[in-house]
Design goal:
Elements lengths: L2 H11 L7 H13 L2 H8 L24 E3 L6 H9 L13 H13 L10 E6 L2 E7 L15 H4 L16 H9 L9 E6 L3 H10 L3 E6 L4 H10 L3 E4 L6 E3 L3 E4 L9 E3 L5
Parallel strand pairs: 1-7, 4-5, 5-6
Antiparallel strand pairs: 2-3, 2-4, 8-9
Helix pairs in contact: 8-9
Length: 271
Amino acid sequence: MSPDANFSSSCRKRGLPPMPLSDFVYYNDLQLYGSRAAIIAGTNSTSSSPPPETATCGIAHLTTRSHLQILNSHQTVASYYDFLGTLDLPSPIRLRPTWDAYFMTIASLASQRSNCMKRRVGCVLVSNFRIISTGYNGTPRGLTNCNAGGCARCNAGSSGGSALSTCLCLHAEENALLEAGRERIREGSVLYCDTCPCLTCSVKIAQVGVREVVYSQSYNMDEASRAVLKEAGVGLRQFSPPRSGLVGFTTTGLDDGEGDGRELVVLNGGN
């Protein structure tokens, strides 16, 4: 079956009037990028006359200004509306983030500096709404970066939770605590991390006197970490800011990336 015939068949199955595939591509590009007449009119700053009536302005340029881009891959209107309901579109946090959303966003931004081959994790240590330090996971100072082959365990693609004693990568929480130093971690400090700390990091967090840990994504050691932090008198709670960026797709079953056995699960294009 030719591409045109296949596309027309798909239209008929959805109760839509069939058209040649080339026409669909043309009108889709027209909607996204606009007509040539509109582009010429928009770039001619000396002209005071309006663009021709047939000129069409595209919408693609708006995507750079949007906080949320929704990919509609749903087969029915009902399922699409159900998905939209999970996004909490009118949330006021999108306009002015709460302190939780603000610091968690910074933690996610810090994760982008990670050089770990397994997973990027970031965190921020806060006292009285002021940032003390930030951290992200990767090999220690002076060692070859993990993504350049510095950590054999991460680069070998070891399964989650295995060969942890051979991993050279420091975790984001460890880096933030080391950067701050015990004397700067004041009583009442809060640690924001985009992934729940592992058991090893939880022990160190308890040792330095952090009051509370706030995390976004779960981790397979959540309960063990929770038990240690609870016994030490450290609060642990989950907070996930409204999703931003491109949403509407699902990726599951990816290997961890922290170098500590964490499994990466992105639901509908999470933060």
